[in-house]
């Protein structure tokens, strides 16, 4: 008996664990954080509409939101859909609260009924009155809402004022070569504004130029399927990446500029020294001497104009001359 109980207890314990796991495991139709974020992103566009999105073209979720005080539940509505050429099928509705205080109703279509490039007709009616609530015809390939790009990295390029950005496509995204991206560029200083740059389809890197030196920039990337084969919505922004750009005064350029200035100053000093006599004469010209007009003025008469008398000689247009008059 003891051995039988010893062999039975491990099996019972395993069964209890399986039952507990099944009880505690979340329902496959219960919303997760990613669904909540994407639904909130779309609800901001039109909360009174029937909104649908697919993540990988193999799924489709449609939902709408109502005021929390409406007092209605999933049993008050009927959700049905029809693929082209097929009969109408019902879709089980779910209900849950939102962070904004409203109530969200949603339905997830089976993978077998998510065919791209085929019209899909959706219809929501009120059970009590049979009145139509929503009616839409969509193509699943035109309502793609991707996850944000991952692994965004920013680094300085070799050229001054350039930054290289690299990232990974959204996880699980179909046909990465047909994804277009948009880069958001902002600075810590609000006066710098926000810039956005679109990237060609399939590229997961870009080089940004004409950025201010010595400025901290923050970059984010979002994704969207490229038209015309696909359509949909911009994803949420990726995790940000920040980088401080190099200063406009490159140390090497600054050093070379100082050396050049010193060389020019040295050449200017050498040129002044080689022409110092000419410059001195131009700056301090010599004073003319009357010795040339009065012979012996400084040698014989010691610069005295009154010795022996002076004659004033002048003529029109000629300078005034003083000439000594000999005594009789």
Describe the protein:
The chain has helices at 2-24, 33-43, 251-274, 276-283; strands at 51-53, 61-66, 77-83, 89-90, 94-97, 103-108, 119-126, 132-139, 144-145, 150-156, 163-168, 179-187, 194-199, 205-208, 216-225, 232-233, 241-244, 311-313, 321-323. Among the domains are: 33-142, Sandwich (Immunoglobulin-like); 153-245, Immunoglobulins (Immunoglobulin-like). It is 20% helix and 30% strand. It has four helices and 19 strands. The strands form six sheets. A four-stranded antiparallel beta sheet has the order 1-2-6-5, covered by helices on one side. Strands 4-3-7-8 form a four-stranded antiparallel beta sheet, with no helix packed on it. The chain has a four-stranded antiparallel beta sheet with strand order 13-12-15-17, with no helix packed on it. It is an alpha+beta fold and 328 residues long. It is rod-shaped.
